[in-house]
Amino acid sequence: MKRRTNLFIFLFLVINLLNCKIIKNEEKTASNSSGVTLNSHDFENNDFPKNRREVNDYEAVFNVDEITILTKIIRDFERKTTNQIAIVSISSIGTYTDFDKYAIDLSNYWKVGQKNKDNGLTIVFSKKLRKIRISTGNGTEKILTDQICKAIINQIIIPEFKNGNYYEGVYKGLAELIAKWK
């Protein structure tokens, strides 16, 4: 009888361990998807999602490799300059009616840039809403003026977006912003 009980316990443990491994692999696959699914816990009692990383792809427009490349570029740039960059794709601006205001408020809410330098830049875009905004901190806008940001959007990013190349548009726009910001 004791041997049968031990066998039952052993089989129970093996089945549970296998089940845990399967669940972990499913979670890993889900976390490696190109986007992030938002739920009510992702919002902090307002219209802004929680800041998770440098590239926050809430619209699932990038694949994992693209997110990795953009993140590396941003982190390397921050290490060299202390300037901070966030990229956000989002399908909704909540109760806001003005996309530009939403992008500025999101950047301020997330505190992109160092407080004493105000050296942040946030690229917020929406494939669904067909909108994009580059928000700069006060320290940043001395170099990357509104005119420069609008030119990069109109001449580099939007032409790629019109062809469905969201990664290429953001990648090329980011490269141009960094080149001008140095």
Give a written overview of the molecule.
This protein is of the alpha/beta class and 182 residues long. It has a single domain, classed as Diaminopimelate Epimerase, Chain A, domain 1, CATH 3.10.310. 51% of the residues lie in helices and 12% in strands. It has helices at 2-31, 64-81, 99-110, 146-162, 166-181, and strands at residues 55-57, 84-89, 120-126, 131-136. Strands 1-2-3-4 form a 4-stranded mixed sheet. α4 (146-162) runs antiparallel to α5. The radius of gyration is 21 Å and the shape is globular. The model is unreliable at 20-45 (pLDDT under 50).
The radius of gyration computed from the alpha-carbon positions, rounded to a whole number of angstroms, is 21 Å
Number of contiguous helices: 5
Overall number of strands: 4
Which architecture does the CATH hierarchy give at level 2?
A: Roll
- Give the end-to-end Cα distance, rounded to a whole number of Å: 76 Å
Placed side by side, the strands forming the largest sheet appear as 1-2-3-4
Number of domains: 1
* Helix proportion range: 40-55%
Strand content: 5-15%
CATH class: Alpha Beta
Average of per-residue pLDDT values: 82
Gross morphology is globular
Short description:
This protein is an alpha/beta fold.
Write the layout of secondary structure elements.
Blueprint: H1 2-31, E1 55-57, H2 64-81, E2 84-89, H3 99-110, E3 120-126, E4 131-136, H4 146-162, H5 166-181
Parallel strand pairs: 1-2, 2-3
Antiparallel strand pairs: 3-4
Helix pairs in contact: 4-5
